[in-house]
Amino acid sequence: MYNCIYIIDNIDIRERANCMLQMMSISVKSLSTIGSTPKSSNHDSEMEFPQDFRCPISMELMKEPVIISTGVTYERKNIEKWFFSYNKKTCPATMQNIVNFGVTPNYTLKRLILVWQNSHSPSSSSSPSPSESFKHDEIVSLLDTLASSPFKVKSLKKLEEIIKIGDERKHDFIILGGLDVLFKLVVQILLDCSDFAVFQACEEALGVLQHFVASGKDDGKVIELLSQPECMKSMVIILQRGSKEARVYAISILKKIANSSFNWKDIVDDQGIGMFKSMLELASDEISTKASSSAFNLFIKILDSSKKSRSKAIEAGAMCTLIELLPDANMSKCEKILQIIKLLCECVDGRMAFTEHRLATGAVSIKMFDVSDMASKICVKIFSLICSFHPTEKVLEEMMVYGVVKKLVVLLHTSGPSSTNNKVVDMFKKNGNLWRRHPCFPDELKGYLCLHY
User: In this structure, are residues 280 and 317 in contact, taking their beta carbons and an 8 Å threshold?
Assistant: First the structure.
């Protein structure tokens, strides 16, 4: 039953016998599992599989073939049991001693097994149509080309066309190990980002991956793969230096990853300023509204998750850019810009950047009562932060001149008890003595707030 070759020099005969018994134990358990499956639903067990498709331990057809350090391929569950359940430190087929117990998926063999199974499956009404079989075989061929050829862009473009057909092709692609192939192409630029062919292949690979992210197909697996540090660093590089189309791919994928509670600390520490500058460029894009919206959403997610990231964003010029974008922004964009400004003002550097910008107070004041209730509440929060932590006489004077105080009075008279109302009252109590000297300050409000002369 076992056709493995054993190297027995310098190996104790009892150790060899013990290994044989444990291999038989794994094999018997595997065979008993097959025996418990109805014959009609397990046609594969009746086929004569090529010897190279069999696991050397169980002699069954491999479903997840992996290569170990000796170069021999095994079924994953069998070799992991050999190493970690039986605590063996040898290769079952060659009995060589092993130091590195890592396993590497053998995607080429897995694709060959799948192709062989499809070509030997019985013809029935459920059999794939010639067109579907052709597409499946084409995916296999293209993945093999990507693994072996230095010219990858053309194959990636063809893959993207096939992926667009529908979820069945996406499923085939995932089963055939396509996601891991794309992952290797994406992270390749970390090794040589000056190579144009490598850079272009990374861009095209992101173009294929974004179809999985956008469709939500096997979303968890895709996000888990893309969230790995190497892949994140590569996407941030593309975000900064890639083509316009590739940057849109990158920002869309990064936004999706941000929704999965990703920890941005290492990325912000390593590439924060450059990343934020690129995001601001995309946020300012008036042509691609999708890219602009994704950039704003990503900004909010990152700043909300890490206070340290806010200093990096300010250093990248976020406050200045956002204030300049605010006057012409539509309602949705305006609310997002105000939310980002509010997050930035929660740190010292952000409040300093706000007060130093000569248009900041006026730009935010105009949006109060002019956009939405949400926007007005955010405006109050911004001015509350400024008044509480950075109430310079210049800023307080600007709030009076640009009509902020007047709007706060209106809000005080029209809104009922709320956290927003409390913030307004608090601002008047702290700064009313300065504002009351202005000729426009209403006399009735002085008594209402119990201000001291």
Answer: yes
Residue 74's beta-bridge partner residues?
66
C-alpha closest to that of 318 among 281, 288, 293: 281
**Cα(180)–Cα(185) distance, rounded to whole angstroms?**
9
- Report long-range pairs for 216-224 (Cβ below 8 Å, ≥24 apart): 217/167, 217/170, 217/171, 217/174, 218/170, 218/171, 218/174, 221/174, 221/179, 222/179, 223/256, 223/257, 223/260
Residues 238 and 246: beta-carbon distance below 8 Å: yes
Summarize pLDDT for 384-416 with one digit per residue, the tens. 999 888 678 888 888 888 888 888 888 887 777
| DSSP labels, 152-218 | -HHHHHHHHHHHTT-HHHHHHHHHTTHHHHHHHHHHGGGT-TT-HHHHHHHHHHHHHHHHHHHHTTT
Tokens of 220: 């968890």
Ordered DSSP codes for 347-396: SHHHHHHHHHSTTHHHHHHHHTTTS-HHHHHHHHHHHHHHHHH---HHHH
Which of the pair, 118 or 68, is modelled with greater confidence? 68
Q: Which residues contact 259 (CB under 8 A, 6 or more apart)?
A: 301
Is 2 strand, coil or helix? coil
Q: Which residue, 39, 35, 37, 63, is CA-closest to 49?
A: 63
Asked if residues 322 and 340 have their Cβ atoms less than 8 Å apart, the reply is: yes
Residues whose CB is less than 8 angstroms from the CB of residue 15 and which lie 6 or more positions away in sequence, other chains included: none
Sign of torsion, CA 190 196 201 206? positive
State the Cα–Cα distance between residues 199 and 207, nearest whole angstrom. Answer: 13
Higher pLDDT, residue 151 or 207 = 207
Over the range 203-219, which residues count as b (16 or more CB within 10 Å of their CB) and which as e? bbbbbbbbbbbeeebbe
* DSSP structure string for 253-317: HHHHHHTTT---HHHHHHHHHHHHHHHHHHHT-SS-HHHHHHHHHHHHHHHHH-SHHHHHHHHTT
Nearest one of 320, 286, 285, 283 to 302, comparing CA atoms: 283
Nearest alpha-carbon partner for 177 in 144, 202, 207: 144
Query: What confidence score (pLDDT) does residue 192 get?
Result: 79
90 three-state secondary structure: strand
The arithmetic mean of pLDDT across residues 212-235, rounded, is: 81
